[in-house]
Amino acid sequence: MKKHNFSAGPCILPHSVFKEASQAVLDFNNSGLSILEISHRSKDFVSVIEEARALVLELLGLKNKGYQALFLHGGASTQFLSVAYNLLEKKAAYLNTGTWSSKAIKEANLFGEIVEVASSKDKHFSYIPKNYSVDNSSDYFHCTSNNTIYGTQMKEFPSVEIPMVCDMSSDIFSRQLDFSNFDLIYAGAQKNMGPAGTTLVVVKKAILGKVSREIPSLLDYQIQIEKESMFNTPAVYAVYVSLLNLRWLHSLGGIKEIEEVNEKKAQLLYSEIDINPLFKGFAAKEDRSMMNATFNLKDNNLESVFNQMCQEANINGIHGHRSVGGYRASMYNALPLSSVEVLVEVMNELERKA
Amino acid sequence: MKKHNFSAGPCILPHSVFKEASQAVLDFNNSGLSILEISHRSKDFVSVIEEARALVLELLGLKNKGYQALFLHGGASTQFLSVAYNLLEKKAAYLNTGTWSSKAIKEANLFGEIVEVASSKDKHFSYIPKNYSVDNSSDYFHCTSNNTIYGTQMKEFPSVEIPMVCDMSSDIFSRQLDFSNFDLIYAGAQKNMGPAGTTLVVVKKAILGKVSREIPSLLDYQIQIEKESMFNTPAVYAVYVSLLNLRWLHSLGGIKEIEEVNEKKAQLLYSEIDINPLFKGFAAKEDRSMMNATFNLKDNNLESVFNQMCQEANINGIHGHRSVGGYRASMYNALPLSSVEVLVEVMNELERKA
């Protein structure tokens, strides 16, 4: 029986992607070789990474606008470090909206002065701060577009005169934005891009080369650009599966189309959370994430019944993050509306039973 | 028809590993979920990484000897940086045996004084320097056990009183060594361990915590040990396939058994290189690598015929690295003896024809 996979990441990808990805492990492109045993310098793989890099820019509307897309190692957590290494000369402005922002601030602190322009820590990161000001003498402004753990999402981004850097790990490719407002976007692959093991960096070349420190080669965006994302052996399989997933999104019609589906899914679930008297949402309504819905049972005694019902309905991965508790339903691009319908039906049934 | 895959890396893995790895992309452990869509914090995956870490120590004979095995991001190239970040306070001693050593030296140079104890650059890295001395007041000694590009391999390691760090990317798990002579071993997975995308670090805990600088979290071995190799989302699939491959090696009888096969393969090919008047080996005989045999045609006019014959025999990946030219046949653990027999037969046939 089909699982309804609400895992916060690594997360569901389209079944067609799994099928093709499975086949390539046995025989890639009818080469008689597994995708896992070919050289990363082979024509076949070079064309994979080139197509993936080009497709990223196309999907984000950033073609021919001075950006480069890179598939790097190390997860978004490595970017906390790389961003500072490459861009931080004296001070930088960070918006603190949760665990990932806080970690980004911690790592950047080793390289210069970090000004926290605002934080929602006072209310356990359940909202997105507004009306903060960013000092335009900072080297850059950094924010996190979606907060997986707390289920909050930035709906608006400030207008700044300095480079804007954004960790979009958990909502890239899920909604339309004017991506050209950003100068550097990074994202661990394991949500809407692909499996765990590679990290996307989209960077405007014009912002690079301005710090005085020496940058380790592997972390140096300019070197990675020069080497066409192959300074060292890339995570071949993770890049390949990301390409399959990007192709899937492209064939659907791109971000515009998937955003409509994502809106429907989120609307359906949040309506239930608000209408059902047994549940309450965690995040401030105006800041609710379209990707990760966080919610709690008002009566903890119902927990074991609800968990049991979810299990019976083949619902996977809705336990909340340990730092928030309760439930978290992640509704990434590949999650079908029908899975949300099943979850809502179980919530309904609980109400009837209780 | 079966390909004979001599690729220098990413490289051949056992067919049984590809089969199981392919199946897990569709359905992992009969969970109804793909290995690509499960949480890295799920019981199923935690048990994968735990088993892989334990198996590494068992295969290397390092159980209960104060070592930890970590599966990290970023390839061996990131370790060039991490080693220096974690261990280099004032100066370190490096043996320069080729491209990878040179890169390791370049990155470490950002963190302290690097003393090159010896180099074989004078003869295009075609041999391993001997009779060098290592200053025991250095913070550590660093060497590269096998040089993929040049086809040389260290047969003996110096006896030093300081921590010995070794990049074993291209020959780990291929031959018996007293691994307890090393204090830190690292290896990109994509040769004898698994597919590209994860990196093994085996570190003796006692050598850590001795530098005064602050270390970025992701590069800090102590933090990675504390977080049980899950400071951030690991490269789930690459770790899983590495486990399958380590299990395969274990079921064969471990390093001792595979070493015998590797010796046979190397002996067969090097004999042919020495006997066949059309070929000459690149590396000094006493330093020849059991993993990567580098050789040239004496008469370059035979190149297109030989290439054609190799292609017809389904031989893949024997072109030499661009910096050496000629041919390179990589004979990693999973390459069967029969593949080497096919290559030797083609070399023989060329001699008969020429």
From TrEMBL, chains A, B:
InterPro entries: Aminotrans_V_dom (IPR000192), Aminotrans_V_PyrdxlP_BS (IPR020578), Pser_aminoTfrase (IPR022278), PyrdxlP-dep_Trfase (IPR015424), PyrdxlP-dep_Trfase_major (IPR015421), PyrdxlP-dep_Trfase_small (IPR015422). Residues 5-341 form the Aminotransferase class V domain. The modification N6-(pyridoxal phosphate)lysine is found at residue 191. L-glutamate binds at residue 41. It catalyses: O-phospho-L-serine + 2-oxoglutarate = 3-phosphooxypyruvate + L-glutamate; 4-(phosphooxy)-L-threonine + 2-oxoglutarate = (R)-3-hydroxy-2-oxo-4-phosphooxybutanoate + L-glutamate. Keywords: Amino-acid biosynthesis, Aminotransferase, Cytoplasm, Pyridoxal phosphate, Pyridoxine biosynthesis, Serine biosynthesis, Transferase. Pyridoxal 5'-phosphate binds at residues 76-77, 100, 148, 167, 190, 232-233. Its main location: cytoplasm. Pathway: Cofactor biosynthesis; pyridoxine 5'-phosphate biosynthesis; pyridoxine 5'-phosphate from D-erythrose 4-phosphate: step 3/5; Amino-acid biosynthesis; L-serine biosynthesis; L-serine from 3-phospho-D-glycerate: step 2/3. Its cofactor is pyridoxal 5'-phosphate. It is found in: Cytoplasm. The keyword Transferase applies. Its EC number is 2.6.1.52. Binds 1 pyridoxal phosphate per subunit. GO terms for molecular function: O-phospho-L-serine:2-oxoglutarate aminotransferase activity. It is an enzyme of class 2 (transferase). Gene3D superfamilies: Aspartate Aminotransferase, domain 1, Type I PLP-dependent aspartate aminotransferase-like (Major domain). Homodimer. Belongs to the class-V pyridoxal-phosphate-dependent aminotransferase family. SerC subfamily. Catalyzes the reversible conversion of 3-phosphohydroxypyruvate to phosphoserine and of 3-hydroxy-2-oxo-4-phosphonooxybutanoate to phosphohydroxythreonine. This is Phosphoserine aminotransferase. The gene is serC.
